[in-house]
UniProtKB/TrEMBL annotation:
Keywords: Metal-binding, Zinc. It holds the Pfam family COX5B. SUPFAM superfamilies: Rubredoxin-like. PROSITE patterns: COX5B_2. InterPro entries: Cyt_c_oxidase_su5b, Cyt_c_oxidase_su5b_sf. It comes from the Eukaryota. Transmembrane segments: none annotated. One of its GO terms (molecular function) is metal ion binding. It comes from Odynerus spinipes. One of its GO terms (cellular component) is respiratory chain complex IV. The lineage of its organism: Eukaryota, Metazoa, Ecdysozoa, Arthropoda, Hexapoda. Zn(2+) binds at C85, C87, C107, C109. GO terms for biological process: mitochondrial electron transport, cytochrome c to oxygen. This is Cytochrome c oxidase subunit 5B, mitochondrial.
Amino acid sequence: MACSYGRAVLHVCRRSISYSAPRRFLRDEGPDPLDHATGLEKRELLAIQSGNEDPFNMNITKRGPGTKDCPNLVPSAFKSRMVGCICEEDQSHIKWMWLHDGSPRRCECGYWFKLVEKAPV
């Protein structure tokens, strides 16, 4: 009885295991994410596909002149938006402030910012 148990263990240990990926993954024929996306995700993918790499204006932008007569324009689809200003080039922290529709706001460093209306995605 013990001998047959030992042979069974050896037989199970000799089974080969395949580690290869299925053929459909090797051919890169996965489903298109745009076909499965809905709602806001689909609108974001369509905006990126049409050439708008930053549909939500989340990338860092360089400041312009920033005077009271010519403030830095910040696009927003809402009545207010939080904006961060890196006042000096070598600073490691960001000064945050709220911008509200209609009135420009001055940062502590002296640059002016103004909220402008942008169509939502």
